[in-house]
């Protein structure tokens, strides 16, 4: 597994460039992530930019919703739906107006479904 001739591994030499130390054979670090199971290696993961984007979407939606609550002077389902619609439209605006309109509609529907589901759980599930 830690064969020094294996091309999946690179040599780690902490003293490289300082002086020649026979520590080259001490460390052999993988160049790609190691997984315990094959299924884990096949799982698709988000990139760092996608992971950064999700909290930003929440912040946009919350900011838009807060602005709508202040502007409309009421806190209801419409604010949440409009915030979801606005967030979807903002994030897809660079792809064009059609994409922004579709993403806005999906965002509004998703927000409405989330609020309706929350209200249904509050009403019908005894806690």
Automatic annotation (TrEMBL):
> Domain of life here?
Eukaryota
| One Pfam family of this chain | Tim17
What is the name listed in the Swiss-Prot or TrEMBL entry for this protein? Mitochondrial inner membrane translocase subunit Tim17/Tim22/Tim23/peroxisomal protein PMP24
Taxonomic lineage of this organism?
A: Eukaryota, Viridiplantae, Streptophyta, Embryophyta, Tracheophyta
């Amino acid at each position: 597994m830690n064969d020094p001739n294996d091309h999946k591994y690179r040599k780690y030499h902490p003293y490289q460039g300082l002086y020649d130390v026979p520590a080259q054979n001490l460390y052999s670090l993988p160049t790609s992530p190691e997984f315990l199971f094959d299924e884990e290696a096949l799982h698709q993961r988000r990139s760092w930019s996608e992971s950064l984007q999700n909290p930003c979407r929440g912040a946009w939606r919350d900011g838009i919703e807060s602005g709508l609550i202040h502007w409309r002077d009421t806190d209801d389902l419409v604010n949440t739906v409009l915030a979801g619609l606005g967030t979807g439209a903002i994030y897809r605006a660079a792809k064009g107006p059609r994409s922004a309109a579709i993403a806005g509609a999906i965002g509004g529907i998703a927000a409405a479904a989330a609020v309706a589901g929350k209200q249904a759980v509050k009403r019908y599930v005894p806690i």
